[in-house]
Amino acid sequence: MAVRLHLHLLSDSTGETLENIAKASLAQFDDVETVRHFWPMVRTEVHLDRILQEIAQNPGLVIYTLVNPAIRRVLEARCRALGLSLVAPLDPVNDALSGLLGQQAKARPGRQHVLNAEYFARVDAIQYTIAHDDGIAAEEWEEADIVLAGVSRSSKTPTSIYLANRGYKTANIPIVIESPPPSTLFGLKHPLVVGLTTSADRLIAIRRNRLLSLHQATETPYVDQDAVAREIAYARRMFADSGWPVIDVTRRSIEETAAAIIALCNDRRDGVVAG
Hints:
The protein is of the alpha/beta class. The chain has helices at 16-26, 45-57, 69-82, 91-101, 117-131, 156-165, 200-213, 225-242, 254-269; strands at residues 3-11, 32-39, 61-65, 86-87, 146-150, 170-174, 192-197, 246-248.
């Protein structure tokens, strides 16, 4: 039987950090029915008072990232009075950094979201990635940080978008037996070219669902077992002949695939040769 939990996330900024922490933690538990109450941009006691009324009506775990000491004190006192569990997940990290660096953390809400060079680089990466999806503008691939190659429905586009959000300019190209990729792909110097592969069964299942969602016939070479196996073999030979690293996405989430690609980028930057 599922346990029902009210989870209150309070942030003085966008709350993105809190959402990621909560998601990562909840993934470790089974049979939990979570009711999330998301409270971003909490920067005044008036706003906090309204939220505390909701918390009192739906008691549960309170997780917060608030830098204003006055607002924190009010929240902590009220939660103690209500007998609620309260967690400030960034406090141990800030305390450790403060001790190591010999300085106090700046009490500025949302400081990680300032419009600095890193922010604009990420925006530039997203724009580049969207403009170079599915084999578009091959003449500009040399500007990419990463180029993903793989057969249709091997998670190239969502992985590219995820990488772009991490600041990597990412192009991707489908590998099709009947339409070999342009020679540009094989002469790239700056980008890391990565081959994505998967099992035939998984690929067929994904493609079949795609056809169903488009109300198209599901008995085509696109989902034929032998045809799909030939596609995958063709792509794998290309990856091997070109010396590109290959990632099998069969049992990986988009995040796990992207993390593996970023690790390859870091190894390449540091001069580590994959074994």
